[in-house]
Amino acid sequence: MCGFVGWIDFMGNLTNDTKVIEKMNRTLTHRGPDAEGYYKSKHILLGHQRLAIIDLQGGNQPMTKQGITIVYNGEIYNASEIREKLIAYGHSFDTTSDTEVLLTAYIHWKEKCVDVLNGIFAFAIWDERDESLFLCRDRLGVKPLFYQRLANGILVSSEIKGLLAHPLVKASVDTNGLAALLSLGPSRIAGHAIFKGIEELKPAHAMIVTKQETKVWRYWEIESKVHVHTLEETRAQVRELVENAVIRQLISDVPICTMLSGGLDSSIITAIAAKQLSYHDKTLATFSVSYEDNDAYFKENAFQTTQDGYWIDQMRQRYKTDHRTITLTQDALVEALKDAMLLKDMPSMADIDSSLYLFCQEMKNDFSVGLSGECADEVFGGYPWFYEQQHASVFPWLRSTSEREAMLNPIWQQRLQLPAFLHATYEQALTEMPVFIGDEVERERQKLFYLNNQFFMQTLLERNDRMTMGASMEVRVPFADHTVIEYVWNIPWEMKNSGGMEKGILRQAFADVLPKEVVYRKKNPYPKTYHPRYTELVQNQLQQILLNKESILYELFDKEKLQQLITSGGKSFHIPWFGQLMAGPQLLAYLIQLHEWVEHYDINIVSA
């Protein structure tokens, strides 16, 4: 994985502005500490930071071939197959890198090259001959790409911070951005980056920028089809597609590990990876995360019914993995809250994010690549709101809209109109949905799947990218493979929920390779801390922030309700702020991040 930046000015001469592109590029050093490179021409400057995974010596970027230059972040999992096709067409290669495969694919197929790619990617390709820039992002949005339009060109970056390092970009947020942050946060609307003027290239979209015009289009979308397979055939197809996705994503010139929680999803990834490595007499390394004194303070609840240790042991013993548990302290979690916010360039999922960042820092000591079970719940319907009718409502992971608005002072309640903003966001999302096949009940559930893919899954993928790359580690997500999603999308709910248990079809497809206890384990979310010290730490920090009368918290929120929130350790906010995990102390941490975000970036609140 890597990071890149770019600056185009079709009317000016950028040859004397190299220090600007270097400043932008070096904000992304964490994404690629292994190499730094630049391409400089009259109208364009490109910068790249590399994390070496494939062809450690020959894959440096920017890479130029036949007058065309690429900067690229990601992995093309079917690069070897594409290479063979291109060789048959008469092309030759100087490296074994997937970067050269992607560049050559563009040379051969132009913009249609995206149709043959299986992978996670965001890239920019500059053709010096006709002075055109081609930008593209993978189908599910695993890899990020942001841009800001200029009067005579464009700025691009893998992360928002790269754009903010340019002198023409100001850190300002208008009321629409603030409404999005406070109604949807820590998620956001695809295409919108909260900061005024900064846009995101949406997943499955491509873009061409020339002196004459800028054109953006969608190159892939989910297609609804009648599902014709029997239950047995569906199990077999799910098994084959998931196995193939994992096997493709094991490609690497450096060692690979997996994240193992003992849940269904990570256990499936681990089982497939361990089997593949065993063919080469290699032992799979697995990692799990825990928290100090978790045994003493863990509290069973409707979402998190058990700790992970027992099920991790079942998998470790069955597949003889080299397993390590990383135990995080409460102080470290709180200290890393600002790091997590800076990595995301906006308030994040509090310690749910900071813990992943710290977890990956430890794994990075021995590994640069890992595999995760992330996204299986979004794809196969693992969340309560899919199968418990009382939860099946608009944005069911955001049931706190009225409570969020009530936290604001009356002036900002009137200005932001959070319920109306959220409703408009929902209605706009519905206009972009594919046509559904099936009865009314099935169509309503498909809406949930679509909205999960567009909002909830995007939040998790963004979390995965920023926190893992913040530790200079690439974590791949096989369940977000587009071939898996295309097939599972059309499986009827009765089959997805086969056996009356969430993700039933997935459980049945892999029942023979997992311990029985793991197959039938009730879904548990990502582990979080329950230690009272964590609550005490965020209470104290937020209380200190409120001594600062210039804080954005004083501007936006009702002061009495803020104080009630602090005093109660977050319990005065009665339902999760977001999803299943952001409740109580996590909300306090989110408000800390909101304050630090405005302060660190010196954000100016402006009119829409």
Number of strands: 19
Please give the count of helices.
26
CATH architecture of the largest domain: 3-Layer(aba) Sandwich
The radius of gyration over CA amounts to 24 Å
Q: Averaged pLDDT, please?
A: 93
- The 3D shape can be described as globular
Roughly how much helix do the residues carry, as a percent range? Answer: 40-55%
**Amino-to-carboxy terminus distance:** 36 Å
Give the full name of the CATH homologous superfamily of the largest domain. HUPs
Report the top-level CATH class of the largest domain: Alpha Beta
Defining key terms:
single chain; Rossmann fold; six-stranded antiparallel sheet; alpha/beta; Glutamine Phosphoribosylpyrophosphate, subunit 1, domain 1; 17% strand; 608 residues
Can you offer a commentary on this structure?
- By secondary structure, this protein is α/β, with parallel strands linked by helices.
- The protein folds into two domains: 2-218, Glutamine Phosphoribosylpyrophosphate, subunit 1, domain 1 (4-Layer Sandwich), CATH 3.60.20; 231-392 and 460-519, HUPs (Rossmann fold, 3-Layer(aba) Sandwich), CATH 3.40.50.620.
- Helix content is 42%, strand content 17%.
- It has 26 helices and 19 strands.
- The strands form four sheets. The protein has a six-stranded antiparallel sheet.
- Strand 12 and strand 13 form a beta hairpin.
- The longest helix has 31 residues, at 440-470.
- The two termini are 36 Å apart.
- The mean pLDDT is 93.
